[in-house]
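Try it yourself: sequence plus iron/sulfur cluster, in.
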Amino acid sequence: MAQKSTIEWTQATWNPWHGCTKVSPGCKHCYMYRDKKRYGQNPKIVTRSKTTFHDPLKWDGARLIFTCSWSDWFIEEADPWRNEAWDVIKRTPNHTYQILTKRPERILENLPADWGNGWNNVWLGTSIENQEYVFRMKLLTTVPAWTRFISAEPLIGPIDFGDLTGVHWIITGGESGPRARPMDLEWAKSIRDQCAKSGVLYFHKQNGGTAKIDGAWGGRRIDGQTWDAIPQPA
Ligand code: SF4
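Structure, out:
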């Protein structure tokens, strides 16, 4: 059985390694830190998984798989294991992998040798939480990839992306949890409108906060409707 995800824009999660170090304000309330501490583990120690490393090889069907929900695919500590993980992806063309990183400056030097213009079952994405981190988009768009995406979650400030050429999909979401930083709905609306103007697919995950409305933290409607666009797997 695949590890079913509760994340609205994916179907399963895969963590070949876990543990991470914080790199920017979006990491402040990282749920992996919270969960690892609860289990008495040090969240900063990056560990290869003894049990889940080859999981996608066992999963039937075609799944959208969010990789490294408990780490970062491109974190330096995982350099010795990443080629083996790329091999798992290569051997499972039936699945589509969503690789989201806060370290886009490390992507180019850590792609597989036969990456070419990008494998068609890999979507590469970067997280951008406010205007200060738009430079990550510039780094991402220099990388050849089948699909490129941006996760603006937790959205903690307004963002003007400027030129969205090379970006296929943007996700927005407010922070959730007891110390959630509020998201102004106008920030999400602005990103929605920037996507519409540039022909970029737009998905709004949640408004954020401490209470669920219709199954999502803070609800997920903007202007009376949900925004659920998602790229088609190859
Ligand atoms: S990069 Fe992701 S996993 Fe790593 S600390 Fe930041 S939010 Fe957590």
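One thing you can check immediately is this: The chain has one domain: 12-20+27-217.
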